[in-house]
Amino acid sequence: MSLLLKERVYTMESPTAKRGVYPLHGYKLGLYRLPIKLDDPAEMKSIHDGLKNTFEMDMYADRIFATYTWSEENMPDKFSKDYEKVDLSITVEIVSGEVVDIIYQIFPLDKFGDPQWITDYRKKADHFAKMIIDTILRNTILSDKMVESLIKTETISEDQALIRLEELTPLAQIVPDAKPKPVEEKVEVATSGDIKNEIKRDGNEPVDGPIDIEYKSKMKSSISFTAPSKHEIKTWGRVGSDNKVLGVWGEFVSVDYDICVGDGACIDACPVGVYEWAEFPGNAGSAKKPLMQGEPDCIFCLACEGVCPPEAIKIFEQK
Predict the structure, then answer these.
(1) Tens of pLDDT along 69-116?
(2) Structural domain for 251, as ranges
(3) Alpha carbon 297 to chain centroid distance?
(4) What is the CATH number of the domain that holds 310?
(5) Given pLDDT bands bounded at 50, 70 and 90, which one contains residue 1?
(6) Residue 40: its pLDDT value, please?
(7) How far apart are CA 297 and CA 294, in angstroms?
């Protein structure tokens, strides 16, 4: 919040935080931690949708990104031969969980072509980042959570908490209708007899990626597999027991084993040891696969999804 951040940029020297690694940043961040809980995907989507007409919004796993863009001109005469215009931007990242981290990083000016005629770039970027934060906290469902937190922590009334929130977010833009009701999205799972565009394989050749993220509606649910960890792994599209057609394994940590080439990049990338090697002789893609025996421990960092060469992995939020 801008009043608390004031003119300072808080830094976090550690490359890790509450849930694994923040992979999109260097080691110095503008960081503010809020003592409120945000872990419902429907609530995250409400924040995303509520501000999509105000900022450029994106949502990725357990994070929401809000980007503000502004333009700078080196002179008012647009018809001059020396006229230049550049678009600059700043992105604020909201990391969900038991507490909420709000992060922004001010990149060097050379990211935008190094227009040295621009003045006060860092000051402006810092101001706009705080404006985004204030706008999010004043207008979205996070405002309700902040009011509840202020009532408890400062022992004040609801009216006093609302006034306090306004004091803490002086740069907020007022955005009407920025609190759409959270709606939980339902994933359709195919059952026998109602499958359209069913994915069928003969197992004779390796399958090209990427994984079809709609596999649950295009493959029949098949027999589950009990891992050595006792975790029951759900499967789709698995045929027989000869491993020729393995289909997709894992409900939340989903790997298309017919696409998987068994290179092990996902095993190396996972910070919490979700995967272990398992033997599947007879599969055209590879004879060993990364078994998601620790699927319930997934922290949704998406590291494995990003490093998989044939794009055989898709990570979903657990609900």
Answers:
(1) 999 999 999 999 999 999 999 999 998 888 888 888 888 888 888 788
(2) 215-315
(3) 17
(4) 3.30.70.20
(5) very low
(6) 84
(7) 5
Q: Which of 250, 245, 223, 227 is nearest to 313 (CA)?
A: 250
Number of domains in the chain: 2
Rounded CA separation 51/134 (Å): 12
Report whether pLDDT(31) > 90.
no
User: CA nearest 103: which of 208, 18, 179, 195?
Assistant: 18
For residue 252, which amino acid is it?
F
Averaged pLDDT, 50-75: 90
33 confidence band (pLDDT: 50, 70, 90): confident
- Is 173 a member of any domain? no
Residue at 99 is within a domain: yes
Mean pLDDT of the chain: 83
